[in-house]
Predict the structure.
Amino acid sequence: MITETVRSEKRDARRLDEGTVRNLGLVAVLVALVIIGIITRPELYSDPSWVRNNILTILQQASAIGVVTVGMTFVIIGGGIDLSVGAIIALAGVWSTTVATQSFGATGMIFTAIVVGMGVGLVNGVLIAYGKLVAFIATLAMLVAARGLAAQISGKQTQISTNDTINGIATTRILGIPLLVILFAAVAVAGWVLLNRTTFGRRTVAVGGNPEAARLAGINVKRQTLLLYVLSGLCCGIAAIMLTSQATSAQAATANLYELDAIAAAIIGGTLLSGGRGTIVGAVLGVLVFSTITNLFAINNLPTEVQNMVKGGIIVVAVLIQQFNYRSITQIFKR
């Protein structure tokens, strides 16, 4: 019994050290990207006011996808995947900007976006947890269906947001910090607390690590899986309002490929695709890395095609590193 306890403590210590090293590595990547920016565009970085505004721009651009990534991280840690997040955002955004919904004011629009997001997440969760559909197939089908419904509701047209309160979210600043960035930080902090300081977080890790062992330990695996997809839908609803505010409109094509960006950010942040391990801090750093790359390409007037190739390369390298680390840890435990 004592030996097993010691092994468990050593295992936790190794995971903590590994997570710290990975996060420091991501910070180093961010520093390297800034250095590249200074070298390629020194005239811009010589202006302190431009540097400050550029940092806030990067954070603001990362805010919506960052919120989605928090929800995606929970789903992946729990052993699942959600390919429908971009479509959920589009549907929630379109539904909340219909003339009927806007007549209820900002509160009605926010309520609608969140309810639609959670509702679609609930459907995903039911299909996966109780319908026993593979998460990849269920959420892929939802991706198509939600985009189609969004196009049907909007008539394939862009819907303009006429609510000043909603539109003002993107331009409001508190103590000089954009409200969108504050919302992103609030969701990230809430996600960290939920994952690391609550029973829900411990159950998520247990279900993702070994569903059968979690079931034998008394965890309702189906209900936990269902709640994870509802949580992802909640994050999508929040992101829908954020994007609607930034564009002052919504359409069926909104948040295209957001699912890939969210999954990629979670992966390079250290979340295992097989489930059972991941951190919110790492996921947030992953989002910032991708947003900084996008910004770096923009200020250097480089094509998005090259940017996408760089992102793809980063994803491949991150997964290879994960596999190498997993094999190394497995060998250590076998000794």
The longest helix spans residues 2-40.
